[in-house]
Amino acid sequence: MAGTMRKRFSELNFPGRLIAVEGLDGSGKSTQIRLLQRWLELQGLKVFFSEWNSSELVKSATSKAKKMELLTPTTFSLIHATDFADRYERQLVPLLRAGYIVLCDRYIFTAFARDVVRGCAAEWVRGLYGFAALPDLTFFFKARLEVSLQRILDHRQQLKYFEAGMDMKLSPDIHESFRIFQGKILDQYLAMIDEYGFLVVDANQPIETQQSVVREMVAARLNLDAFALPRT
User: Fold this and answer.
1) How far apart are CA 11 and CA 162, in angstroms?
2) Which pLDDT score is estimated for 67?
3) 56-73: per-residue pLDDT in tens?
4) Which of 29, 81, 151, 230 is the 20 to 30 A CA-CA neighbour of 202?
5) What is the pTM assigned to this prediction?
6) SS (H, E, C) the chain
7) What span, in angstroms and rounded, lies between the C-alpha atoms of 6 and 99?
8) What pLDDT was estimated at residue 55?
9) Interval 202-216 mean pLDDT
10) pLDDT-based confidence at residue 101 (cuts at 50, 70, 90)
11) Are the C-beta atoms of 119 and 73 separated by less than 8 Å?
12) 138 strand-pairing partners
């Protein structure tokens, strides 16, 4: 399903709004959306946070299968789609109907990028998520590969097997595999910027600078007063 055929939640007359962040592993998007969440909460707004691959229905199964390397690219894709569908129906849609600002650390675009790089057909992957509306705002944190890599290594000693794409046998060196794998994912994201109207943030900048940009964009595009919690 082409991106232009999908509608945003605002276009479907949902009272709530969904804001998603996308970017490479290590781009800093998770830090930014958590800071945004705190900022919105301090203003007394109705806010809910959701993240990729977090449904209790399939999370444990995914974790076990990863450790045993049992997943093919197609199975990987189907499991993540199941996870997303569960959260979409149980969390996202009900809260958007209730007038919340829903913040998503990754949305369907993560699958559009990762699954295609792993070898799944683009139209097939997009078809899996054909039920999902588009976010009202999607921030893409564009970071250089070396910046993303260094940020990860600043917080832990080594890269994770799957984030480095080691399952794809791109290189025996995990750091080089990361560069190749994440570079391919970056190409997929860049191709989606215009199609889906991503709001691009320079993720090489300091955290505070990025957050200021994000807050300004959110305040300019949403009527935040409409999402205030009822006063007691």
Assistant:
1) 36
2) 64
3) 767 666 666 666 666 788
4) 81
5) 0.91
6) CCHHHCCECHHHCCCCEEEEEEECCCCCHHHHHHHHHHHHHHCCECEEEEECCCCCCCHHHHHHHHHCCCCCHHHHHHHHHHHHHHHHHHHHHHHHHCCCEEEEECCHHHHHHHHHHCCCCHHHHHHHCCCCCECCEEEEEECCHHHHHHHHHHHCCCCCCCCCCHHHCCCCCHHHHHHHHHHHHHHHHHHHHHHHCCEEEECCCCHHHHHHHHHHHHHHHCCHHHHECCCC
7) 21
8) 72
9) 97
10) very high
11) yes
12) 20
Whether the per-residue pLDDT at 22 is higher than 70: the answer is yes
Is the predicted pLDDT of residue 42 greater than 60, yes or no?
yes
CA distances to 4, 29, 189 from 175, rounded to whole Å, are 36, 21, 21
| 2 token code pair | 């082409």
Q: Exposure pattern of 127-163 as b/e (b: 16+ CB <10 Å)?
A: ebbeebbbbbbbbbbbbebeebbebbeeeeeebeebb
The pLDDT assigned to 133 comes to 97
State percent of the chain over pLDDT 90. Answer: 75
List the domains of the chain with CATH numbers: 21-222 (3.40.50.300)
Nearest to 103 by CA among 53, 47, 30, 35: 47
Please report the pLDDT score of residue 3 as a whole number: 42
Q: From 143, 191, 165, select the one nearest 26 (Cα to Cα).
A: 143
Structure tokens that stand for 231 in this block: 């006063």
